[in-house]
Design brief:
The chain has helices at about 35, 65-70, and strands at about 20-25, 45, 55, 75. It is an alpha+beta fold and about 80 residues long. The chain has a single domain (about 5-79), classed as Alpha-Beta Plaits. The strands form two sheets. A two-stranded antiparallel ribbon has the order 1-4.
Length: about 80
């Protein structure tokens, strides 16, 4: 497919996100600080042994408040 015909990611409008803007790593201890901080309530706890304890939903706007508050440096921005 020529590049000009490829689908454009994130073209659904300014309020729609096609992917989360941050990622939670296995460093997460489950302290919950980011859950309390997120203004969009975009973080959801998940009970999966051995994996990240949080799911970042499409409600994430990329404000990065969770990155700032995390004491374990477990959240990173997805570029
Ligand atoms: S603040 Fe960091 S360590 Fe605490 S629950 Fe969130 S990602 Fe995990
Ligand atoms: S970047 Fe902002 S909106 Fe996204 S999960 Fe973190 S605190 Fe919530």
């Amino acid at each position: 497919m020529p590049c000009a015909d490829a689908p454009v990611r994130g073209s659904g409008g300014p309020d729609r996100h096609d992917r989360a803007r941050v990622r939670v790593s296995a460093l997460c201890t489950g302290c919950g600080a980011c859950l309390r901080t997120c203004p969009e309530r975009a973080l959801r706890p998940v009970a999966v042994p051995g994996a990240s304890r949080l799911l970042v939903t499409a409600a994430c706007t990329g404000c990065l408040e969770c990155v700032e508050i995390c004491p374990a440096d477990a959240i990173t921005e997805v570029l």
